[in-house]
Amino acid sequence: MIEPQQYGQQALQEYLLLDYVQRLETRKYGHRAVHIHLSRLKPFHRRDYHIRVATNTFESYVKLYVGRIFVLTNNDLIFVWKDKSIADVEPAVDTLRYLFRDDPLSQDDSEETGFCTWYNLNTEFQEFLLLCQHLDERAKKLQKSLNMRSAIQREKDNNVLNPITAENLGELEETIHTADLSEHIRQQPVCVFAHGSSKELHPVFDEFFVSITDLRNALMPNIDLASNRWLFQHMTETLDKRMLNYLCKRTFKTHASSFSINLNLGTLTSKDFDKFDETVRRNWQGNVIIELNQVDLFSNLETYLRVRDDFHERGYRILIDNLTVEALSFVDRKRLKADFIKVAWREEMTDNVIRKKYSEMDSLVKNSGRERVILCRCDSPTAIKFGQSLGITLFQGRYIDNMIARQRRAKRDAKKPVRPTPTRPTDDKPTR
Questions:
Q1: Which bin fits 222, alpha (ψ -120 to 50), beta or left (φ > 0)?
Q2: Number of domains the chain is built from
Q3: CA separation for the pair 171, 222 (Å, rounded)
Q4: Taking 70 as the threshold, does the pLDDT of residue 195 lie above it?
Q5: Tens digit of pLDDT for each residue in 249-273?
Q6: 285 lies in a domain?
Q7: Domain membership flag for residue 429
């Protein structure tokens, strides 16, 4: 299986694959392999999210069939296993075909251009070995090119951030345990803004979150905290605990009747969350919404399905966060029994572009439930206009924040008593 410290260092995967196959030569009997050509998919289906979901499809097979899975530089997958037939692994491949059913490649079974290639290492070991050697050489060339480009870029940019490591992660976690997080906790409303003559905004819930940018600037300004997905997730789990403790110990104010918090799935089964559940939920009359990152959810789908119904019964609502337009085609809100989904606004989502690249978005939003979709990161009126054109009524972002602030200032000004205008003296004597 993929080791956390190796994920993201893609060129290393080709090296590990070649090393693994070379060591198999004397004990190749009983081994088989499948090469899944995800690099042949349309660019629309080759984003990080899709590759992660595809990789997770094989996780159970890795454990069950004494297998190894490798994610190559071009996002292809190679799965090698022992003592089971090709027919035993075909269901996993069929699952991927279904996930990518909208792509023409999913229906292509040809050897040269098809979705996958199967190898019986009993009889095709040399052919498979040559493939692995070719992949390794290609990855080395690509890595060399990337390193040269990175070096040039670093010379151009003196402010380049260093990647996070296990060492500086340890330092960061120690600091987080003792730091005053209240300085970095932000509050942002999600509001109803219906299409029509009324410009009135109505907060539905407030999201409480830690500003990663502010945290980095304050604690480790030269480190890119998100450069390693696994280490970043480990750090956010530490932040989860601090956030829950913060909410337990402090009285927080919200203009809405509900609030949300971003959490990792693993946090939901922790003692820190049990404490939060006992204290905050007992004293809070509104809804508490748990925001789950879509990558975390699909990486731990079994955990989600196990805890979801229990959390609903306890009164929590669930929101799937950090969705892109592309990810909407993979996320069935109703089937996952999530209460809300968040889709991030991007400037390229203009009326002209949407017809070409996102023609299915209207139907995707409709299927998800227009009243259940939140368009976030709305920084301009264009974002609001776009969302309203799709029937979306829930919005979040800096533009909404500014509108709320203006709306509240206007209400305060309207309540202020009008002071009488002072009368001017009518005689010609100078006033003192």
A1: alpha
A2: 2
A3: 14
A4: no
A5: 765 566 677 899 999 999 999 999 9
A6: yes
A7: no
